[in-house]
């Protein structure tokens, strides 16, 4: 008979193997490292682009314009990107998009060296990269079942999320160090090199021999409409997309207003903001790794709703708290909840969608990335006219109501 200690060790080993099982697949492993290099460059760029925009203009509005420049193309073209992901070679879509993203970063570096860089070049770069993102990400999500098979979809998605969380945590810091030590031009060239490595790695990913879904050759707009009807007509997919929208418009928008919270409630500045954002990153890494280890026998729908509920609780706790240490803990919980919800939601969407519609479903899902900056506008107006605390309370309550409504009125989600 095994002792409790031995049983615990065996259980821990099984959980660890289950957490990283998709990385045992060589094709997925190269795909994952491609994502790591891509997100390292993207997260370095978020800091470098904003800092350079500020140095060029000293205008807060223009900095915000450049920082959110990626969003409009995602809103406009994600549905097209998802549709093409159901028609074209997904690996090539990812490759070419990553190559263009790398070239754009390199071109910006050249304009810095030659002294012709200006705010509109940065804005154009943001628009172009947002356009590429709207085609790359639906294909990146939809290709995962082709790499790992149906049974490991959720694990692979969660490992993707953990990689993104790791780079979200470390990328801005690396970008800041590079910018301070070597200046903006070198930083942009480093980013371009990282993204180019991602492109090269993606060329080595082999999806040959994997059954290819039936491609429909109908009119593009008819195909988009078919994807929308399919998502609306499938109750599980529709509710999962609605839950994603609710989180984007509340939890993600909450983050956009955190600089005001740090200033008005804690009397802090960039250092305190950086600590809180880092704790969200730590929580996101922990949450995604936890989700990667979930077995198929666990009620993942319940875990999804609990994770979303954690985000709501974290927002509500941070609403009126005046002790910075408590805020740090709340942001850790927010990161765990958000990342756990995002990893599970994406995986469940891919599992529930049939192979023919996966690209289009993920294209609809990608719209949420474009909505992130927009969702902060009504909360910002409310905060300006009342208080930052009331705006945060409204965000937390709306998210909590969404989770409770899903639990009560969509019981099929709990059975996933």
Characteristic terms for this protein:
mainly alpha; Growth Hormone, Chain: A; 2 domains
Taking the alpha carbons of the first and last residues, their distance comes to 34 Å
Q: Helical amount among residues, as a percent range?
A: over 70%
State the helix count: 18
What's the domain count? 2
Shape, principal axes of CA atoms: globular
> Could you say what the CATH architecture of the largest domain is?
Up-down Bundle
- How many strands appear in the DSSP assignment? 0
What are the SSEs and their pairings?
Blueprint: H1 4-19, H2 26-57, H3 60-67, H4 71-85, H5 90-114, H6 119-142, H7 144-148, H8 153-182, H9 184-203, H10 220-233, H11 235-256, H12 258-266, H13 270-292, H14 300-320, H15 324-352, H16 358-385, H17 388-409, H18 411-414
Helix pairs in contact: 2-3, 2-8, 2-9, 3-6, 4-6, 4-10, 4-16, 5-6, 5-9, 6-16, 8-9, 8-13, 8-15, 11-15, 11-16, 11-17, 13-15, 14-15, 14-17, 16-17
């Amino acid at each position: 008979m095994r002792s409790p200690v031995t049983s615990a060790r065996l259980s821990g080993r099984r959980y660890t193997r289950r957490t990283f099982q998709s990385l045992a697949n060589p094709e997925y492993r190269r795909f994952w490292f491609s994502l790591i290099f891509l997100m390292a460059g993207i997260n370095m760029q978020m800091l470098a682009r904003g800092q350079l925009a500020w140095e060029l203009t000293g205008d807060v509005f223009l900095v915000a314009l450049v920082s959110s420049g990626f969003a409009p193309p995602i809103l406009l073209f994600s549905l097209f990107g998802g549709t093409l992901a159901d028609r074209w070679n997904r690996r090539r879509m990812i490759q070419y998009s990553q190559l263009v993203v790398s070239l754009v970063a390199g071109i910006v570096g050249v304009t810095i060296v030659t002294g012709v860089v200006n705010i509109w070049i940065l804005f154009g770069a943001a628009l172009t990269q947002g356009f590429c993102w709207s085609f790359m990400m639906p294909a990146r999500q939809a290709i995962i079942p082709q790499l790992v098979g149906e049974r490991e979809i959720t694990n692979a998605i969660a490992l993707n999320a953990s990689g993104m969380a790791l780079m979200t945590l470390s990328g801005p810091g690396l970008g800041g160090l590079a910018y301070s030590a070597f200046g903006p031009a070198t930083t942009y060239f480093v980013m371009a090199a990282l993204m180019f490595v991602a492109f090269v790695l993606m060329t080595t990913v082999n999806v040959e021999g994997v059954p290819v879904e039936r491609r429909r050759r109908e009119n593009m707009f008819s195909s988009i409409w078919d994807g929308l009807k399919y998502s609306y007509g499938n109750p599980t997919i529709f509710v999962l997309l609605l839950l994603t929208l609710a989180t984007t418009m509340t939890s993600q928008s909450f983050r956009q207003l955190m600089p005001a919270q740090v200033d008005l409630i804690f009397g802090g500045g960039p250092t305190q903001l950086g600590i809180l954002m880092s704790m969200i990153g730590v929580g996101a890494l922990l949450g995604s790794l936890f989700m990667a280890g979930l077995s198929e026998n666990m009620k993942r729908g319940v875990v999804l709703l609990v994770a979303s509920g954690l985000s709501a609780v974290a927002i509500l706790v941070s609403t009126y708290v005046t002790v910075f240490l408590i805020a740090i803990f709340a942001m850790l919980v927010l990161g765990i909840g958000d990342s756990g919800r995002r990893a599970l939601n994406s995986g469940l969407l891919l599992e529930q969608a049939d192979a023919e519609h996966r690209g289009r479903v993920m294209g609809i899902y990608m719209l949420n990335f474009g909505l992130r900056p927009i969702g902060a506008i009504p909360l910002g107006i409310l905060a300006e006219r009342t208080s930052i605390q009331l705006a945060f309370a409204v965000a937390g309550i709306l998210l909590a109501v969404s989770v409770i409504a899903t639990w009560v009125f969509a019981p099929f989600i709990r059975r996933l």
